[in-house]
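PROTEIN–LIGAND DATA SHEET

This sheet pairs a single protein chain with one bound small molecule, zinc ion, given as SMILES. Inputs appear in the order they were entered. The predicted three-dimensional arrangement of chain and ligand is reported afterwards as a token string under its own label.
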Amino acid sequence: MSTVTASELRVLRADVSGMPIEWIGYEEAVKLYYLDRVLYPMGQSLLTLRGGVNARTGLQSALDIHSIICTSGQSRGHLKRHPHYQPPLANLALFRRDAYLCLYCGGEFNVSQLSRDHVKPLSLGGCDAWQNVVSACRRCNHHKGGRTPEAAGMQLLAVPFVPTHAEYVYLSGRKILSDQMTFLLGHFPRNSPLHLRIDQLSETNKGAQVHGP
Ligand SMILES: [Zn+2]
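PREDICTION REPORTED AS:
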């Protein structure tokens, strides 16, 4: 059973339309609550923060921090829904997209052993973008060198895809709670290659518990 401490808590922030935007720490979530930017909380209560005691009523103030919050304000959610939108490219999210596999030899590696391979090398005019990059072990990346897979006699095991913003939020998340996962899955495209993988992972994610500070 995995456990999460308060400092590791990640609140999933969604915009006014319910589109997942980003992960924030609970301190930032508290700020949004006090700025009155939380339109409504969703998901489970992660922790309750106790404030001061009201001298008149004798009641102690309390704030529940929920796992998912829908917030007002700038999110550029409409841009993130655009068909040509590309989430930022980062190695950790890339390796996770490719399930920590080298897409040439099929071996499973840890993060320190993987590298970003440009399918069409930059030197040949390839771009540094999701559709042209794959996870590769250092050995395969070195062997491929500045060549295309065809020229190097190597075959790609999967076609690189551009994640939608919701998929990117998933790929960049750590210790995702089951209700956050369910929420994110609801925003994945029907044909997302991630569905199958998450089905397999979901058993291990069940029972994640949260502990207060
Ligand atoms: Zn390899």
